[in-house]
Amino acid sequence: MRKERLRLPIIARFLLWQLALVIICSNTVQANAQNILDKKVNLSMDQVEVKKLLREIQRQTGVSFIYSSDIINLNKKVSCRLVNKKLAELFSNVLSPVGILFSIIDDKQILLYNAPTGQKKTMEQAGYGTPAPAIIVEGQVLNDKSQPIPGVTVMVRGAATGTVTDREGRFSLNVPYAEATLVFSFIGYQSQEVALQGRNTVTITLKEDAQNLKDVVVVGYGTQKKMTVTGAVAAISSKELQQSPTANLTNALAGRLPGLNVNQFAGGEPGVDISDIYIRGIGTYGNARPIVIVDGVERSLNYLSADEIESFTILKDASATAVFGVRGANGVIVITTKRGKASEKATLNFKISDGINTPIHFPKYLGSADYAMLFNEAKINDNPGVSPGNLNLFTDEQIENYRKAKGDNSDGLGYNIDYFDFAFKPGFQQDYSLTIQGGSNKARYFIMGNYFQQNGNYRQTISDPYKTQAIFKRYNFRSNVDVDITNSLYATLILGARLTDRNAPGTTANRVMEIANTQPPIYPIVVESNDNAANRVHNVNFPNGMLFGTQTYRFNMLGELSKTGYLNQRVNYLDGTFIMGYKLDALTKGLKFEGMFSYDRQGGYWVTRSVPTESQGYRVYPGYATFYPTDGVDVYMKAGHYTGAYSTPRRSTDNTLGNSFSRDDEIGRTYYQLKLDYLRTFGKHNLSGLILANRSIRIKNNEVPFCYQGISGRITYNYDQRYLAEFNMGYNGSENFAPGSRYGKFPAASIGWVISNESFMERTQGWLDMLKLRGSFGLVGNDQAGSNPSDNRFGYLQFYNNSGDAYNFGTQNNQNPGGIRPGRLANPILTWEKARKINMGIDLELLRRRLTITVDMFHEHRYDIITDLSGADKQGFPSLVGTSAPLLNVGIVNNRGIDFEVSWSDKIGSNFTYTVRPNFSFARNKIAYQREVMRSFPWQYRTGLPVGQPFVYLFDGFINNQKEADDLNTMNNGTGFQKWGTVMPGDVKYVDIDGDNQITDLNDRVARGYPRVPEIQFGIPISCRYKSFDVSILFQGATHTSLLLGGPATYDFPLYQNDEVGKVKPMHLQRWTPATAETAKFPALHYGKYDNNKQYWSSLFLYNAQYLRLKNFEAGYYLPTKWMKRAGLQRTRVYVQGMNMLTFDNLKTVDVDPETNDPNGNWYPIMRVINFGVDITL
Amino acid sequence: MKTKIFNPYIFIVILLLGCKKDFLVRKPDDQMTEAQVFADYEKVNKLVTDLYSDLHSRARGLAFLQHFSLSAITDECRGSTVENGQSRTFNTGGWNPSEQPGSGYKWADIYSTIRISNLIISGVRKYSTPDNPLNKGDLDIRRGETYFMRAWYHYLAARLYGEVPYIDFIVDPNGDLGIAQETFHSVVEKISADCDSAIALLPVNQTDPQFARAEKGTALALKAIVRWMAATPLYNGGILPNDTRKGKSSYHTRDNKRWEAARDAAKAVLDLRSENGQLRYNLYTGYGTNDFVSGSNNKVYSRLFQQFYDFNAFKQEGIFMNMNDKWEAWQGDNYPPSEGGGSRQQPAQEQVDEYEYIAPDGYGYPVYDARAVADGYDDANPYESVKRDPRFYRDVIYHGSSFRNAVRNTATGSDKIGATNSTTTGYFLRKFYREDYRPGNGVSFQIHYPLIRLPEIMLIYAEALNETGGSADEIFTMLNTIRQRAFMAPVPPAVKGDKDKTNEYIQRERRVEFFFENKRWFTARLYLEPSSTTQLTREQAWQSAGSDNDTRSRNFWPYPKCQRMVNGMKPVEDPNGKINIGGKTYRMERFYVATWVFVSPTHFFFPVMQDELIKNPVLQQAPGW
């Protein structure tokens, strides 16, 4: 088939017309197309070939003809003489007589075909302006084992009709003309086109292809054929992302890609549950976050809907990222959104799902009886030499009472409160999505609307007129339109919008978790109402009960959940991109020029209608009233009902709702890009090239705009798809650096050898489908300094600023204006940090592509790391200088590792297919140089170790008796062996590493365990299908990761919030006592602060946080096609999904989730979701 | 194919031409260069303001250690466990060169402020900053303040660390960063020199709206204070055990000239006169013998309370102060639990015993004086059996005292000793409290904290006179003036001429007058009390006074000043008790509260932080650390 087109003189008309096409349903096109035959022609030709005639008509009218030169004899000579006549006359008078019939496709395309032999069709028979009579084609789609495949999409190429195969793989379709081409496509199989050539029954065998989505891979600023890629890239498709019922796309990524490190360290609170993402681990102690490119522009990927994503790709090595130059060192995430496809029938997909979410794990704490028993023990331990009578202890009787107590003191035996039970319940979530996509040869479109709602898990949210439940809503809109204006000129408009709307109680999730983790069970949540006259006014003001709270335990769980008001955060992301391109084939074949302009805005606001908290010194009090017994809270240490008056620590009425309004960071980006693309094949030589210039201006609030500009280029060459070579280059700069240090060159080269394409490999073709070796080497940069780069801007300039504080002089206490302060010292030659990356890869496809293996090994050498020397570990200025050292390019970090993916797809029997595709990522970094201070001993150096590896004191057993304690305390002239003050029996002893008879911070802490970000992450996706059933499972895990915990997570009676003291966990029952000295696992108990035992940097509380999760589970079923047909639907799938279903870990003792990332364990757990959905395609 | 309308090549060329060369040239336009700052008086003035605003973190009186007073790490008070129990970390020896509670007061903080003072001094010179066009002479005054502040911040450092480097230049980061400490006496000379530069430039009176800026007398007073420090045993004739200080040889021998220098420097302050010929500083004597704070059962004199709130007091006797040191909310924290407080600082029995009583003969004697019992002092009814120094009733809430019109009870209820958040010593803090404040009742005020008050200089003068054989009458005048102002009976005449007895009264006066004013931590050390033979012997005596701590504490007091324990008093129900609260009678009984750690010489100074020593190996760690 060949198509030829002529251009209308006015471009604008094309554009408008094409846009109209997108909007108008294809059926209505026919009506508008009637007048195509009314177009006027002027022809005066004698014995001219049909093809010349057609070309001339095309030139005059702009009408394109579609035909197959195999069928129509274009060399037939005709004559015509038409002066300002309608096109219709041409057909009836000139073409029809020679057996060429026509059918109108749309108002600028006409299909030509031959009159079937023996059927001389006239103009009248064909019908003036009506399409040719429909031809019904029937057939069956089979796999290569001759079993039918249901659900295969069958489309007519170039027409807007199509269908789907039924359970027997059969289909029946109206095709507009006998020579139509059918397109068969189905996920997991290679698409196939079949020309009917007049047949009206076909049987098709589809070839399976697990890799079909990867035939083309996304690379920086473009795409490449997978076969010839030499860089390290990995990608997944929308389908896998859709398996995770989560609001934030980042949470769907764990375990999906080799080389992608994903941890949901932020926890699971609705609307703030964004995962940390790194590519190949961490390569610098500076800013290690990769940049994210969505549709060609650096954008946030937060809250994109999985339904709008076509592909998610990570670029890992220098070859793939060099084009991003000064921004590419941490790797690049490239996301493309869905686009309509040419010749695709308009499909409408509607997806609806509902689910239940529950926090995955809550730690257990001991109840009141054990609390009281251990409390007494701790208090006595705390006060050696003080008679227990002077201490305020629980009586044995009361401890017994607690054991018998129901918990709510209705029996007068005391309280025993379980906070998690009180505060949490399952929540509901919904996800509705509507997508429409389709297109003709001229225009393609994808539009989507998506709504996601996640309701929170707080139980007590209804006691006030306003609702305080945590609710997160997400609205996604997308419209991607591609228009071919002419053969050469094309345009694309990408519009994406996300709006999030988060409602949350006026409290914070962290505070709710902290209350649950720390407040002693012996205190009530609501104080007992009693008839004491002194309380009458309070009883009237708080008929639903008075909340308990004291000067120490200031916050109340019920108060936090129901009386703190609410806040509403709305964030909007608007991304707009306009692309216009021109194919410069006229200049040289394969050359294309493209300009792109994009403007993004991200902003949001907070309406905080919360009850303001109040401060008194460092103490924060809630805005609601709380009460405690006037006789002191110690009344709860005894059985009985309190009958006295209540006092309030701060206020006796609730504060009124505050009403404040604030804005999120207002972020905008303007981006321009010009691109010249070249792709050409000369025999066995395949050449492509890219030159690109871009400029980006990012606005953040009132800061000086962040600017980048640069030029990138790429040349790829391969000979016969066997020998591959590629060269990438970025030349770009950042305003962060002084002139002279501003622009950098970032080159990268890579080569590949497809051994399997060599002639000498013919013998192996039976089992080896593909074998490719790859290697790359190059340089990339990073201009971001520190975790908050905008704080470290303009490190090359020295300024004074207005950051000083005010001071009040005079007896009238007049405020004097704020002082001026000198800023950070400048380093005029500050420049970006650089990464030299080497990558070696091998791609293998074996056993008729059932087994595919991709392995990449890498080594990254990061140097000139932008280093802030102000920390204690770095050799910066002594404090005597009075200011810290400027930022310097001094650090070196090496990062090496391996990532691989192995895929095995096969079938068992005739209907059961399955795929197992484990991936594995290992990355270990090592600080090679960071201008560390001189240390006395080699084990003290952070240099030589991974970034963030914990340094801990080593647990060396417990102090067994008083004599041992005394001996330790008298050491070092009486300052003791351990630096936290005097010790006593049952306390932890630490190893004196340097042998100076003293435990000191610098000398006796050694590196143990692993950094928090796991060195190894892996995923094991398994999917299988049986007839209309499909099941997918993802196991995901991490190892080589350590979790160092303190505070309420591990300490007995932890001190928190400066003066509140928490409770005890079951693990503390294994404490040291004189009787259990042999078997004790934990030190003797102490109340509140006790740094010797409750030591954060202790090997005792360093846990191995490795885990294996059943991350995702999905089971789906395609409803029978017969039912669907009756309902007028193409297909319908019902499914059930689960997320975070099971976790296996080593943290049973400490009883926290392995992804916990709060050092105190006050972490809102991630969600376990069970989700039910229906996916309907029209 | 050719087209007339769309020519992509022209388009490309236009776009490329559109690129400006200076696209990446951006500058933060909200910031200033050094030249811009020093070209303008007003900006230099703001820089000077910074030196004052740093007082808020470097010299916070009420909350030196975050929100704890330094008092809580001395024998004045015991701190509660709130806010990480910071004070208890010190008291139990849990501080060290790598971990030290609190922030803002340390070495690095102080030297960052000193750098700014150096930048101002050199910048004004380098850029010839013009004077204030509206008020000529202001620039010189600001320069004088800057010299003073440089001296002041070095004083703060020397107070904590003993020997420190004196940085009176801008340290060149490219130069030699190995800067060593100087001996204390050398630091004192440099502080004095900077004070002299300041004295030459500063006015006698900083009047509104500039009141509270350093003035001539402030610099004179700082000189007196550092001269006095240089004359005390720590630097003048005392022996610090295991001393490793650079200048130890100069400290180990007593040089009477140091006392003479202190005397003269103090005298210069006392003699300073305003332009009208009046003495610049006088003790505040507002309110009379019949004015009492309401709700105190006529126990707390209004004058003693107003002394810290009435601006006339600041004008008359405030030599240097930290304006807005703390706002009212600090108070609530220190309240007894019955008032919603957390008893953050609990006065210790050690301090309570220092308040003298007024004997029938009309003179003041300590309660541990031999004649006290004969004069009527009853240790089971210690607060009201005899009239104690009026400052006691202002400073301390005790069992049976009237606070806010309510009689306080530490025997039962929420204020009970040992109850959650309550006192552990039997006392609550009262000094500085404004009793009209209640948490959340909307009363708001600032507490301006006196950093140097006139009595401090008077006591230095009196002490220096005593040490140099000066006039005993003059010494008595100094002491009795201070006491008289506080409605306290004078020093008994028998003391006159007895150097040791006089010194005892001077030291006790300092302890009582400056309770909770951040002096005790330093003075205990300046006089080498914790390691003195006298105190160690007394500690031994305490040890052998019984078989358990409570008995020892009942039998042996006043307690040794070794900073190794804290004691309290608890009410015991007793039908014969003299204290009657809520229908019950009590007697008071001493008890042992806690053991503290004090090791000589380690705990005499703050340690230089470990990371500073690593970065600057020339520095020497304080003794014992």
From TrEMBL, chain A:
Short name of one Pfam family: CarbopepD_reg_2
InterPro entries registered for this protein in UniProt: CarboxyPept-like_regulatory, Plug_dom, Plug_dom_sf, TonB-dep_OMP_SusC/RagA, TonB-dep_OMP_SusC/RagA_CS, TonB-dep_rcpt-like
rRNA processing keyword on record: no
Gene3D superfamilies: Carboxypeptidase-like, regulatory domain (2.60.40.1120), TonB-dependent receptor, plug domain (2.170.130.10)
Signal peptide: none
Domain TonB-dependent receptor plug as annotated: residue spans: 226-332
Keywords on record: Cell outer membrane, Membrane, Transmembrane, Transmembrane beta strand, Transport
CC annotations in GO: cell outer membrane
Transmembrane annotation, as ranges: none
Membrane topology: Multi-pass membrane protein
Subcellular location, record wording: Cell outer membrane
Keyword Transmembrane listed: yes
Family: Belongs to the TonB-dependent receptor family.
Stated name of the protein: SusC/RagA family TonB-linked outer membrane protein
Species name: Niastella populi
Automatic annotation (TrEMBL), chain B:
Coiled coil: none
One GO CC term, this protein: cell outer membrane
SusD-like N-terminal domain span: 22-222
Main location class: membrane
InterPro entries listed in its UniProt record: SusD-like_N (IPR033985), SusD_RagB_dom (IPR012944), TPR-like_helical_dom_sf (IPR011990)
All residue ranges annotated as the RagB/SusD domain in the record: 323-625
Pfam families for the chain: SusD-like_3, SusD_RagB
Top-rank taxon, per record: Bacteria
Subcellular localization, as worded in the UniProt entry: Cell outer membrane
Keywords annotated in UniProt: Cell outer membrane, Membrane, Signal
UniProt entry tagged with the keyword Signal: yes
Similarity remark: Belongs to the SusD family.
Protein name per Swiss-Prot or TrEMBL: Starch-binding protein
Organism ancestry: Bacteria, Pseudomonadati, Bacteroidota, Chitinophagia, Chitinophagales
